Amino acid sequence: MTALIVGGSGLVGGALRHALERARIAAAITRFRGERDGAIELDVRDEGSVRACVRRVHPDLVFLAVNNPGGVDRCEDRPDEADALHVQGTRHVTEAAADCGATLVFYSTDYVFDGTAAPYAEEDRPRPLNHYGRAKLAAERIIHDLTPAHLIIRTTAVFGWDRSSRNLAMQVWERLQSGGTMRVPNDQQCTPTLADDLAEVSVRLVERNVRGVVHVVGRDRMVRAQMAKALAQAMGLDPDRIIPVPTAESGQRAPRPLEAVLRTDKMARLLGEEPLDFDEALRRFRRQWLADARA
Ligand SMILES: NC(=O)c1ccc[n+]([C@@H]2O[C@H](COP(=O)([O-])OP(=O)(O)OC[C@H]3O[C@@H](n4cnc5c(N)ncnc54)[C@H](OP(=O)(O)O)[C@@H]3O)[C@@H](O)[C@H]2O)c1
Hints:
Blueprint: E1 2-6, H1 11-22, E2 26-31, E3 40-41, H2 47-57, E4 61-64, H3 71-77, H4 79-99, E5 103-109, H5 131-146, E6 150-155, E7 158-159, H6 168-177, E8 182-185, E9 189-190, E10 193-194, H7 195-207, E11 212-215, E12 222-223, H8 224-234, E13 242-245, H9 265-271, H10 278-294
Parallel strand pairs: 1-2, 1-4, 2-3, 4-5, 5-6, 6-11, 7-10, 8-13
Antiparallel strand pairs: 9-12
Bound molecules: NADP nicotinamide-adenine-dinucleotide phosphate.
């Protein structure tokens, strides 16, 4: 079996690479900025390049884990740019995957929900509040319409030790380690999800040939400020330098659902296991951080 990870240089893509390696599934990876470390350079907005890349690798599985720098706020500021990546890019990859008979695994988000009726099951009606959520929902629908051979994994608050990533853990590290403080919302609920665990669960779902939408998130619910303080502590930094603030004072430009918590009953039923708890996720994260700090 061969896999292609589109966005293989990202946080989720990098974790997938390791998880596939452990599962002995050969994987080719793409990155946006330059062909290096064995990765293929690919811009998903370029339909011809996507087709050529998929033809070249001829994968059985395509993981689509691309994201735009600047994240949710940038999508709000530049909706056309967001649509080109998340909507049109998804269409290009889905069509190319379907044409070569590959199964598509797509990473979506809790932001397809508005946060007023949590916790959300997979079949609950989405109602995104921001452009990022609308673009990801449009992408989900394109996939649904174009190929039955798909797995859509909705996740949230993904964290991991990865120096090229801007995930919350890395932001906490950069700001606090250089002596600064960080303002983090104290009213946005989340269920922190360790990137490595998300990747391992993704591979287990694929190995069981699961199709459709599945929520894959960590077990414990908390506000983002609490998550940031715990991450600071795990990296030996002063958690008091995390300043909890209401979303309205956080400087975030796109509206956020305050409680878009996802149910994980389906995942637990499919795999016969509960989601990873935050303490264990933190222990694993700390080992990654220590290994890199020592190196
Ligand atoms: N992180 C979270 O908390 C979270 C939560 C919910 C859902 N998700 C979803 O999970 C997926 C992965 O997120 P992530 O956090 O791993 O993202 P990330 O770390 O920002 O990585 C993004 C990846 O996309 C690539 N990329 C950027 N623009 C591209 C383009 N035009 N064409 C092709 N590739 C492009 C990047 O390549 P370069 O490295 O070369 O720039 C990188 O490999 C996304 O679809 C996101 O919506 C993430």
